[in-house]
Write a structure and sequence with these properties.
This protein has a 6-stranded antiparallel sheet with strand order 1-2-6-5-4-3, with no helix packed on it. The chain has a single domain, classed as Immunoglobulin-like (Sandwich), CATH 2.60.40.2000. The chain is globular, with a radius of gyration of 17 Å. The termini are far apart. It is built from 2 helices and 6 strands.
Length: 100
Amino acid sequence: MNMYPKDMRNQVVEKDHHLKLNNRKLLEITGVKEVDSFDNEEFLLQTVMGYLVIRGHNLQLKNLDVTEGIVSIKGKIYELSYIDEDDQGKAKGFFSKLFR
């Protein structure tokens, strides 16, 4: 017995993805699927919009809610960047150009 209406069974529901940065000290992110890796200088998160890299100093995981997909990170935030799947195979930077 299926409790969902027929038109709702085949729909993929993606969560919204929001970033809220307060004074470069507290970052709140929604739409997080998975925390792949983290340390005090870098976090790698899989979000509904792709992979997100957060770089900074003294980064700490303040809050993690896997059911809602919410992550809070505190510390000094230096950089937020998305890794597109198209760019994963391409090397970037000075050394990659030098050693082609």
